[in-house]
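wait is this the right file?? whatever heres the structure
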């Protein structure tokens, strides 16, 4: 069986990438006719969001028969199933954060992954029962989807477009 690949949801990556591109446009406009503080603020904001966008597009979990591979920000860690010692979950409103403890350290991921419930099911099937918290199994009975972040990102895109239009009209 081929590895199952899990990435950050496209419904988040798409508007976030649009926001990064629009911030670049706004930064270029401010370089032509903006104040110094505006150029600095938009430059820093663009660079930070660009780094986050690259991280979001690079982050990947691959679960297969032999183990798990986590790729994030140009680093890749590979674990066999025996190296994973614990799987836990913390739920805060509509956000679920999963803690994966291994012999090489710990890793946190959220329900922002595409098909995250399938990944969690795969992990619980591969790990011995005592290594999986009861809360994880309870979560699988009623998983939470995280839509608010996508809505907020689209709102940010709308605000940036409005700012660009305002700057172009003035």
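ok assuming it is, sequence goes like this
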């Amino acid at each position: 069986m081929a590895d199952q690949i899990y990435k950050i949801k496209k419904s988040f990556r798409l508007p976030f990438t649009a926001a990064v591109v629009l911030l670049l446009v706004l930064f270029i406009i401010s370089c032509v006719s903006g104040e110094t503080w505006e150029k600095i603020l938009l430059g820093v904001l663009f660079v930070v969001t660009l780094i986050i966008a690259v991280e979001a597009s690079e982050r990947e979990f691959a679960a297969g028969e032999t183990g798990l591979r986590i790729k994030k920000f140009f680093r890749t860690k590979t674990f066999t199933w025996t190296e994973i010692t614990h799987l836990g979950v913390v739920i805060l409103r509509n956000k679920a954060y999963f803690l994966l403890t291994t012999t090489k350290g710990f890793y946190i991921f959220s329900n922002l992954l595409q098909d995250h419930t399938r990944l969690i099911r795969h992990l619980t099937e591969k790990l011995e029962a005592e290594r999986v918290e009861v809360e994880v199994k309870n979560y699988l009975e009623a998983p939470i989807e995280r839509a608010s972040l996508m809505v907020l990102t689209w709102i940010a895109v709308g605000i940036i477009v409005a700012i660009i239009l305002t700057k172009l009209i003035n």
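The chain has one domain: 4-169. so i think its the right one actually
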